[in-house]
Structure formats: C-alpha cells, structure tokens
Amino acid sequence: MARIANAVRPRLRRAATVTAARLRTRATRLRPVRTWQYTAGAATVGLALAAGVVTAAGPWDSGQRTAEREWAAAQEGPGGADHGRTSDSSGSSGAAGGVPRPAPSAPAVLTGLGGPATSARSAPGAPALAALLDPLLKDPALGDRHAAAVVDLSTGGRLYATGADETLTPASTTKIATAVAALSAMGGDHRLTTRAVLEPDTRELILVGGGDPTLTAHADTGGWASLRTLAASTAAALKQRGVSEVTLSYDTSLYAGPERHPIGENENLAPVTALMVDEGRLNDSTSGTADRSREPAADATRRFADLLHAQGIRTTPPGPSKATARAQTLATVTSPPLSDLVERMLTNSDNDIAEHLARQTALATGVRPDFTGGGEAIHRRLAALGLPLAGAVFHDGSGLDRTDRLTAHLLTALLVTAADPARPDLRPVLTGLPVAGFTGTLTTRYTDGAAGIVRAKTGTLSHVNTLAGTVVDHQGHVLAFAFLAAGTTDADAAQRALDRAATALAG
C-alpha cells in the first residue's frame, strides 16, 4: 500500500490543473481565485492533490504549477495562505475572524488515490478492459490497422493490449520519445544560450546561435529569452569599448546537415537552424501553423541589427560566418530550463522545439546534429533507459516524418518511465501533456466527455491518428494508454473514436 501510494503521489501533483486552468483562462479577470475551488474541482472529476516537492513556476505554466504551489502552501496551516477564503469581487475576505477555511474535499480524494486509506483497490482487470475497449477500437473510423496498450502507471503492469508490439506511424506522439530522450541526456535544468561575440581584430560582431527556437523578438517575452535584451546588452558593451560601427554576421555552425525537413517547406515547421527568433514565424503567433521564414538565421540577425541601430550602433548587412576561439563574448541570453521547453513542446505539439531538442540530444550524445543524428540519439538514449525498442525507427524528433515507427508498448513504457519516482528529471513529460478540454491540442476535445481527467499527446497525419497519455479512472487509478490507428479516412471521426476509448478508461 505504502509503495503504491509513494509511487502515485509524485505523478499526480497535476491534480488541480483542470480547475486552475479554467480559473486562470476564463475567470481570473472577473473575480479573485479561491484556492479551495481547485480542490473541489479535483474531487468532482476524480483527481487528487498529491504531496511532494513543488516546482517553482516558470514561464510555461498552464496552471498546474500555480495550483501545486497554492496547495503546498495550504499544508502549512489551517487552509493555508488565502486557501478557502470567501471573497467578493473587491477581494475582501468573508472568513470568520480572517481565518481561511480548510479545503473541503481533499481528504476524501486522497483516500481514493492511495492516501490515508486502510486498503487499496486493485487496478481494473484485463477481461474488463477488453470488454470495454474491444468494441470501441473496432470502430471503422480507426482505419484498417490499429494498436493499443493500457498499463497501470504505478506498477507498469500491462492491463490491456491489442497489436501492442506492432510498429505503426506514431505522428506527433513521437514527441513523447523526444522529450524522454532530451531530458535523460541533458537534464531538466539545461538551458540554451544565444551569444553576441566580437572578433577583436576585425570588429566583426557575430550573433552565435545556440539552438534556442524560443528566442523571441517580441516586447512581451512571456519569460523566454529576449533578442531585445541581447541587443541592448551588446550595444552597451560595444559603447564601453568605444565601438559604434561593426561588421555584422551570424553563426549557425552548432548544427549540421540540411535545414529543411524531408516533408519540405511547410507551415508546421521552419528550417531547422541553430539561430532563429519566434520559430521563424512571419506573424505574431506562438503556436500552431504559420507562414515561416525561408532563412530564419538571416532574418533573426536583421532584426538584431534593427535593435542595435535603435541603440546607436551601425552595422553592415548581415552574412554567415563562424566565430573563432579568439572572439570575445559581449552578451548572452539563455532559454528557460529544458523542462519548460519540453512542456511547451508537448502541450502545443510544437514541431520546431521538437526538432531542436532532437539535435540538442544528438550533441549531448556525441552524434552528428542533423535529422539522422537526432533520430539516432533518441534511439540511443531510450536504449540506455532499457525501453522496448523492437522495430522502433526515428527519422526526426517531431513525428512529421511518415517513416517513423513506434509501438503502443513503447509509448506506454515511456510514460511509465516518466512517472518513475526514481526519475523526477523526466516528470515534465507528464506535466506537459495537454489536458483534455482545457490546454494545448486537447483544448477543443472532450468538451462532453472526460474533460480534465485525460492528459494526452495527440498525433495527426493524413490517414494516421494517434493518442497516448494518462487517465484517472473512477477508483483513482492512474492508467497510461496508447492508441495508434493507420488507414484512417476521416481525421475528425478518428479523433472522436480515440477520445471515446480514452474516456471509457475513466469509467
């Protein structure tokens, strides 16, 4: 009982995500957030608040980390800071004597999830799941080939499988593998650095790409590394040296191989180069499809030049170059931790971040940082973790390559590994999964089903639909599942069929 509880609690800290996300995105501007609502909402959907170390919120916070912090604060006293206060639109407290009331439903929820209970219910059995899922997975909308696996996330034990060892095109569920590989290779605290360096003899200023696709030129950075900050710091350093005019260049030598994905020019992905701003997007979007720059490194450097000009530094038109060992670093900006990049990649199914993480994994693994090397590095890292890789093929990090191959068995094993209490470095793989009905690529799905209970990575290519993630069933068990379908002809119908299967697991 204690072993299961200890295994489950670190994985379920996302329990308050649903209500937190709802309040953050739909109601916080209308009235103050009452933290007890997080707990009450969690009870309503059968989730749990779990003990453990609470990660400080970074720039990528879908509500989970905020909810975790507030719940943790609530454990320090009766109700915690502002926990359970009644308040009107002015923010005044209605609690008697100013003492907040305790969360009303946390004990019952924790009991259902292996908390203070005297006995533990067993996970659903294979016959019951087969009776539940077999008819749903025979839906014609799922095409002519499908595979599925369901496991108990606390033990890793398989509860259901059909074609689980058959290799199929995974589409964007590949990003789960990319995330595990990147985190295991570099760690969640790793950051990507963009530098401005000066060649002392030639006054050549070089913008050196560090492979950070989240580098932004927007005034509102959202917590990501800022090109504006880099330009201001660079200009200040140049002025200290008495330099007001430079030859401007850019260095993308960190990566190798072709920049263009095998699918060619596509609104889903910019050319993969070590230097870009805002993922090469030609509009103000931060996710989804968009027209992309054909030369993101040059465009980023031209934008850098504009920012330098505004600071009184004159530049030549930029061109490619390579910084020497003698180059002096004038200024740097760094990305948020890799854990934040992983979460953003998974939540929004961000192909640009995925391909950069594959290349960064290649660099950390000692292989050539191109599309082929990224796939090889992912395979190597997963092999080192002892994951079941029979038949697995990685030709990219995003899953846009139709020749990628994964199994349902591997996808569930990746989720189990990410939930292992001994591997807290992999936890962003779970916390980054979209929340059904609330965040990322699942925002508009499950609106009449298991909203908030399913967390899953979606995958969609022509004639391919996949879904892999976690679900809390009605008895509080956390299950990991993977569904892959090939030969689908109606993407919307296939998605609905997969969502029905995941919803069925919730009970």
Write the layout of secondary structure elements.
Blueprint: H1 2-8, H2 17-27, H3 36-45, H4 64-74, H5 106-112, H6 126-137, E1 145-152, E2 158-162, H7 174-186, E3 193-199, E4 204-208, H8 227-240, E5 245-251, H9 296-310, E6 314-315, E7 319-320, E8 328-334, H10 338-348, H11 351-365, H12 371-384, H13 408-419, H14 428-431, E9 454-461, E10 464-472, E11 478-486, H15 491-506
Parallel strand pairs: 4-5, 5-6, 5-7
Antiparallel strand pairs: 1-2, 1-11, 3-4, 3-8, 9-10, 10-11
Helix pairs in contact: 2-3, 2-4, 6-15, 7-10, 7-11, 7-12, 7-13, 8-9, 10-11, 11-12
How would you sum up this structure, described in words?
The protein is α/β, with parallel strands linked by helices and 507 residues long. Helices cover 34% and strands 14% of the residues. It contains 15 helices and eleven strands. The strands form two sheets. Strands 3, 4, 5, 6, 7 and 8 form a six-stranded mixed beta sheet that branches. A five-stranded antiparallel beta sheet has the order 2-1-11-10-9, sandwiched between helices. β10 and β11 form a beta hairpin. The longest helix is centred in the C-terminal third of the chain and has 16 residues, at 491-506. The radius of gyration is 24 Å and the shape is elongated. Mean pLDDT is 81; it is low at 1-120.
